[in-house]
Model the fold of this input.
Amino acid sequence: MAVIINLFFLRIAQSFPWLKKLTVVNRKRQNNKLFKTSKNDNQDLLIIKYPRLTEFILFNTHIDYVEQFLFGTKTCLPYHLCLRADYGRAKKITRNFRRNLTRSNCAKLDCVVFVRALKFPEHLKDYFS
Done:
């Protein structure tokens, strides 16, 4: 199993453990990704953690960054977080808010603010707690 870890965000998380607000503005694809291979499926893989983050803003970002932070296999978001993101990108990464891989991080959100949202699906309220 290969896990993609973005070294830049790993360094931010380790260097600023008290970080409360993180804004990512980058329309370019991620590069300089590190690939780590697990030799057994039960091994703990490196997941980036932001233990004190309260607000996370992903406006004007490439879809790679939305994936980086919503995939539970890449990032462990804290509970009671407010996410501000582009609706179309969030919808695509979460597969119309039905994807299990993103459900664990999305379930931790207390506040979700979407931009460019025309109409929300009925099941959206079930995806976020």
The radius of gyration is 14 Å. Residues 1 and 42 are 11 Å apart (CA to CA). The chain has one domain: 17-27+47-127. Confidence is low (pLDDT under 50) at residues 37-44.
